[in-house]
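Thread: Modeling a multi-component assembly for a lab meeting

Hi all, long-time lurker, first post. My supervisor asked me to bring a structural picture of a complex we are working on to next week's group meeting, and I have zero experience with this. I have the sequence lines for every component (1563 residues in total). Could someone generate the structure of the whole assembly? Inputs are pasted exactly as I received them:
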Amino acid sequence: MKLKQIFISLLFAMVALTSMSYATEHEDASEVSSEKKVYQPKSITELGVSFWETTGIKAIFDTDDGEMSADPAGESKEHVMSAFESSFGRIIMILIVFTLFYLAIAKGFEPLLLIPIAFGGLLANIPLAHMAGPEGMLGVIYNMGIANEFFPLLIFMGVGAMTDFGPLLANPKTALLGGAAQFGIFGSLVGAVALGFDLQDASAISIIGGADGPTSIFIANRLAPDMLGAIAVAAYSYMALVPVIQPPIMRALTTKEERQIKMGVQRRVHRLEKLIFPIIVLMLSIMVLPESTPLIGAFAFGNFAKESGVVDRLSDTMQNSLINTVTIFLGLGVGSKLAADKFLVLESLGIMIIGLLAFSAGTAMGVIMAKIMNKFSKEPINPLIGAAGVSAVPMSARVVSKVGSEEKPGNVLLMHAMGPNVAGVIGSAVAAGVLLSIFK
Amino acid sequence: MKLKQIFISLLFAMVALTSMSYATEHEDASEVSSEKKVYQPKSITELGVSFWETTGIKAIFDTDDGEMSADPAGESKEHVMSAFESSFGRIIMILIVFTLFYLAIAKGFEPLLLIPIAFGGLLANIPLAHMAGPEGMLGVIYNMGIANEFFPLLIFMGVGAMTDFGPLLANPKTALLGGAAQFGIFGSLVGAVALGFDLQDASAISIIGGADGPTSIFIANRLAPDMLGAIAVAAYSYMALVPVIQPPIMRALTTKEERQIKMGVQRRVHRLEKLIFPIIVLMLSIMVLPESTPLIGAFAFGNFAKESGVVDRLSDTMQNSLINTVTIFLGLGVGSKLAADKFLVLESLGIMIIGLLAFSAGTAMGVIMAKIMNKFSKEPINPLIGAAGVSAVPMSARVVSKVGSEEKPGNVLLMHAMGPNVAGVIGSAVAAGVLLSIFK
Amino acid sequence: MKLKQIFISLLFAMVALTSMSYATEHEDASEVSSEKKVYQPKSITELGVSFWETTGIKAIFDTDDGEMSADPAGESKEHVMSAFESSFGRIIMILIVFTLFYLAIAKGFEPLLLIPIAFGGLLANIPLAHMAGPEGMLGVIYNMGIANEFFPLLIFMGVGAMTDFGPLLANPKTALLGGAAQFGIFGSLVGAVALGFDLQDASAISIIGGADGPTSIFIANRLAPDMLGAIAVAAYSYMALVPVIQPPIMRALTTKEERQIKMGVQRRVHRLEKLIFPIIVLMLSIMVLPESTPLIGAFAFGNFAKESGVVDRLSDTMQNSLINTVTIFLGLGVGSKLAADKFLVLESLGIMIIGLLAFSAGTAMGVIMAKIMNKFSKEPINPLIGAAGVSAVPMSARVVSKVGSEEKPGNVLLMHAMGPNVAGVIGSAVAAGVLLSIFK
Amino acid sequence: MAEVNYVVEALKFMVLGMGVVFLFLFILVKVVELQAKLIAKYFPENTPQTPAVPAGNVTEDENRRVAAIIAAVTEFRNKKS
Amino acid sequence: MAEVNYVVEALKFMVLGMGVVFLFLFILVKVVELQAKLIAKYFPENTPQTPAVPAGNVTEDENRRVAAIIAAVTEFRNKKS
Amino acid sequence: MAEVNYVVEALKFMVLGMGVVFLFLFILVKVVELQAKLIAKYFPENTPQTPAVPAGNVTEDENRRVAAIIAAVTEFRNKKS
Ligand code: NA
Ligand code: NA
Ligand code: NA
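Re: Modeling a multi-component assembly
Sure thing. I ran the full set together rather than chain by chain. Output:
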């Protein structure tokens, strides 16, 4: 105890002595920080009034206070908020955010992304705090990794490190189901144009049908950054709603007999096949469409690191601390686009509708393709697994398995559905590349 | 073995062949890097002399060498160092740094922050290396996360994910103790102004009384960035000294009977209460003072993620790899402000004195408030727990518990002290918001 | 199920109502994004042709398409690619990358770095994707932490936290062996100049002889950024080849008797010695050559954090999630310099040759120095341990131990070789500092 | 600008600051108390355990398992001796 | 610029897009099938286990160890009772 | 600028560089030897164990516990058989 106090006193003494003798050399601290405003004395009432001016209640209810919106890109993208945006709009957004919390927590819908996104949305709608501006927390995050597409690619890398292509390699033909489901993208593209979106915006929206979060964010950022929030929220919401959206469509398009088809045991896959596979996918995408290589390259890197078996330290990090950290930031950053002035526009409603349409179309086409393949294939193919082609890994494969075992207890389709499921991820990235190459 | 060598030879051969045939197409490498200085040949003696010019010994003892100071903000903030700053000042700072090492390692005072801060201070005082400049390691870190307040907020997020509000929810009234202790902030604000600091600087300094590191850094960065180093060091030093500073004050203000008061068993808290609590705090701060929402928002996000129970991956990352990484960087970055030319100014001494005053005042007011509440409350309240209102989580709660059980063995006050303790964190953030709103 | 749908409908309804009534206030989305190009309608054939223009096959085989190279620094550093660079060069680089994959996975050569570097090289050679440009993934990474030398320093910090200086402290004299091995650096510097490199480039290349990855990257970035890729690849390749390169040299320079020398048991080292050691090294380097303090400072910080024993959270993070994350990024970023237009130049061949020379010279001089010390020392010194002076921690110490136990089963030299091994790390950092101070 | 007594200004800040802090915490206390009542009424102790989706905290599980084993082994040893 | 029917343009995109996606996946399927055959021929089941350098995944090792212990303890208890 | 023999310059660099490296390490060796003596004198083997504040390394603890259990189980099995 004594010792401590002696040390502290010593420290003080030293500082005191030296500072005093030399302090004169320094400019006065108050001069240095010349940017400071001169403080005007106020009476306690004035102080109270000026405090009232800075409260959130005042900001929300005084609709005509000329508050500026916030944007990570800075002033050039900001504008004076309308009465609606700065008051009622915020309240609506906060209610939407609470709905998302409810879905994530009580219903277990994609909580890993909905919670950070929704919380980001909550923070973005706080009046006066400008958290989505270039100097706010959300804006800093956005500029750090979303504006340059870095975070979605890191997520893709982590997902790559988590993915096992074994089921796909055991039965490669099922990859075609992951292709058919991309009809969700291109079908809804036509729909979006019909609804009045221009071609570029329509393309950005339709990628929701790919059922792949990072891909959607990547494309939205390139083709329609203003709609990024709505697109990301739609993509993750519908991915969360896979257990609600898909089963009715799957049942409507198949007969009971088809749903009861049993599929054989998968062959064993050689370690080398898994090791070489990510390289094959990458080389193919290099040759066919380089535009998709950021996405496929990051994904292939993660998968290759995992399958190489010699860098487990790195692959573990990709799958855990790195992807978790990036998920937090990605969610908050995307959430910043849920500010009322960005989200509550007519386009968002269109995006929601087209997104649902895209998801449904993708599911339907996957199932139909599987029916066709079943007809021409020697080995039986349960058409249900076509629904897994939309990706939404691994949720849709699980849904397929659940529907399958409901129809015929003991019929486990999970591994067979994983093939189209991961092929869907590749398919969406390819579709994304095509869209990018069109608008290049 | 053979195989390897063949591979390597092959590699060489390929490079050789291809390079040679095409090398002519390239500009000469020496032309490309045109920024290179022309090297003037030197005799071995000249070489030795010019080497001597770059040694640290020469830099420290030649006091009039026109060395520039370093600042993360770049040249506009740099100046020619005075004789004192570039020689004796550095030695004093290095001694101070060693004192901090001693306190952290031998005495166990907040080592998680004092060690990175002190090491950053050591690096910042190295002559000629300019590690605190915009291209030095410390400067890069500073610009990455301190100049934009990102790191303090991430720490706050992690602390939120670590905090259990159960004790506060079990006995909400104790939150008022966390309010009373904020007198430390506002009392010392008056003191600082009396000592001659201007209002804005005084506000930045007084926040030390909040006993909360990230809040202090956040506010210092906004109101008085030049004093950030001294403020952060003072804040963490006094938080580390809680077991030394608080007990005498607690004993002086209470009678033996009061210190022996037993408090009842806490009621069980419903999971939903914990889940909703961070949202309530955030909504309140949105309504009352949006200025505090970056701090409270980050804190609430961490806590909400933890209490939601559905994103344990993310909440684990916030509590471990993310907060650890940020702690390392925050410490090093703050340490860069311990450079002699920044720290050894008269202001630092004032900051140290006011910081101690602020801490003591906060402790005292917390205890007094608890005494008053004890008089008017139906259930007995041990006045000692008021001291925990300064925050300094969980150190001050532990000190309270220790003093309590010394007075009456078996009297465990820990959980009762945790209520005011976490309320103190909220209270400081609110106080910080008030100060920010005044100078907005 | 019902509930979910109600919520979703509600959400839609809300958005619909509010959007519609206010949408008129907004500018039309298509007006906002004014940068969009006007889309010109195309026939399906035109579309196919313009898609063909964006394929990688076309880009590789059409050698005269005016494709630009990519550089993290942006347009000022980019140029129109030559026919060779944009076609055959890329194919060669991809073959080199596959060779590196083979060495890393099948031969286990430094996979933690070769795999990310090689994969980065693969991505950097994708036509049209510009992944190494300022907006590509690799370019973003490069600018984030390699252009400013932040990542190499973080690696050094992590390595510091992993290093145990116990063996060196037990037998300090062996540190001199880590000095002798730095002849690899300065000897090859002479060789590089003789080969025609200018002094500055030669210095950057010769640091490969230090057998230390982060140091090589740090120096290359300062003295010859254009050759960073080749230097880093050479450094890591030769570190990986330590078990191939060193044993023949060790055997050639020693007699059988010398190789069989047994060394005594090492004394026990006091905890305080280990704690103070990093501080001593840092203070010395501050006094003698501040230029080396970024490297030594980061290293000393990591080691001090570990030896302090009070910040295990931080030191664990440095050794695991942080160093792993940075390793991934560092590798990808360095790999971006393996683009054909940067790597396939005559200089790279020179770098490969000099690197091998440097490694061999360092090994030889370490062994010779150990022979000399053995003659003059009271206690016997096995000359083999001199080879460990090149650093390449802990690979070269293991090789020494292996060669030693082959000569005399049961003769375990591992701990004795760790002394010169870690001294080699310090020695290389000092040598790096000398080179930097010359070109300052 | 007339002479300003900055200490007086600082005292005003104190009044405002402490007022807002107490107001904030006071409302918070009231809201929390209300919340506790409402929850106790409408969600009567639905066993405040794990959430809907248990997102598998591996380490904790492991700890528990290890603890179980320790218990088992200890029990065995005690019986033995 | 004449009147453009954007829906028709979108339909063209669909043809191109679905075409490329299917082409890509079709080639992929063929290459993968070829690969499988080649590997089966030249690397006949060299026990697809651990890689050359087993980069020690600590947690998994631990899990396995814990599992072994559990097994041991369980066995013991069963024998006992 | 007259003709410069750069190889000679490089040789000068070598002299300077190796000189500084050896000087540095030589001083380091001497300081470390001195330090060892001083510490041996003033802090005679105060059991170089854990630091003042043991900042709980969970995994290691766990490893140790697991090791203890393995030992216990092994012992048990050996006794049994
Ligand atoms: Na998909
Ligand atoms: Na506080
Ligand atoms: Na070395």
